[in-house]
Fold:
Amino acid sequence: EFAIIECGNRSPLYKKEGTISDKFPMSCHTTGLSCIWQTHCYNLEVYFPDKQKFIILKLLSWLIISVIFLLIVIISFAYIVKVIVKQKKLSEMKNDFINNMTHEFKTPISTISMASEVLLKADEKTSQERLKKYSQVIFDENNRLKLQVERVLEIAQMDKHDFKIDKKDQENVNDIIRKTVDNLCMEHCQRPVDIIYKLNAENPVIKIDRLHFKNVINNLIDNAYKYSGDKPKIEISTHNTPEGVIITVHDNGIGMSTETQKQIFNKFYRLPTGNIHNVKGFGLGLYYVKNIIEQHDGSIKVSSELNRGSRFDIYLPFGNTN
Ligand SMILES: Nc1ncnc2c1ncn2[C@@H]1O[C@H](COP(=O)(O)OP(=O)(O)O)[C@@H](O)[C@H]1O
Ligand SMILES: [Mg+2]
Structure:
């Protein structure tokens, strides 16, 4: 909108008809027209009715682009920070793992070296019994080493995704559990352990990979024993659900906080506290267990309370039994 206004009485000499709004006199831009009308003083007054809206509309596309760029920058920054924190945690865990592994390998290696030294120094006077004892030590420790290496290799294979279980056998879960737990080295353990069976599932025959399933049970029992006090009590039970079997391993050990429970199935995770430093492990057991159970289309969940004990429930579906 514009008008030519006389300075003194402010009467418009010319205006663009019909469009002059009330706001015009207050917020117009004024310029003197003295160059054209030498004698009189006239002003050309111009008013933009929707100045602000017009400017904003003009800038809107740039505004939107800037906001999008800003968002992208913020999101990228948050992502980078997250990745860095994750990497840092991972590298700490890997360091712990390497420390643990060195520690775990050092013990059998030094035992083997000591026992073989004794054998090397043996002469005719050494009794057969003594020789046999040291050979047995070497044999046992060697087996332990082999098992540990196999465990680590298995996890490495799992990560490469070329790890497949072989569910070829229809197995009675109760039978395998009993055999596995009976075979465990409980008599070698320093603390006496009380194992209670409540294998109540009826006819729990499921297609499973026998070897890996045994390892799963071994891992859970091993943890229940390791993370317990002086009198470990482990209860192993099974019961039916309409579509499968639930296997429960319950201990009266040190338990875990809710925060720990969220992480125990992660690779390399071990509770980073000093008070269980004497307890050895790679932090791979539960990662392996979860992987194997999931490959059986099952699931695993944990419930635990600090200083009260932990309970692991494994669900295995009957699935297609043909
Ligand atoms: N039964 C349990 N009671 C208390 N803590 C447990 C139990 N089982 C597992 N955990 C915790 O979960 C962590 C991961 O377990 P796992 O993957 O088997 O590794 P590892 O046995 O080598 O420490 C353990 O370091 C421990 O902190
Ligand atoms: Mg373990």
Observations:
- The first strand starts at residue 2 and ends at 6.
- The pocket of magnesium ion (ligand 2) is lined by residues 219, 222-223, 281, 285 (CB under 6 Å).
- The mean pLDDT is 85.
- Residues 2-49 form one domain.
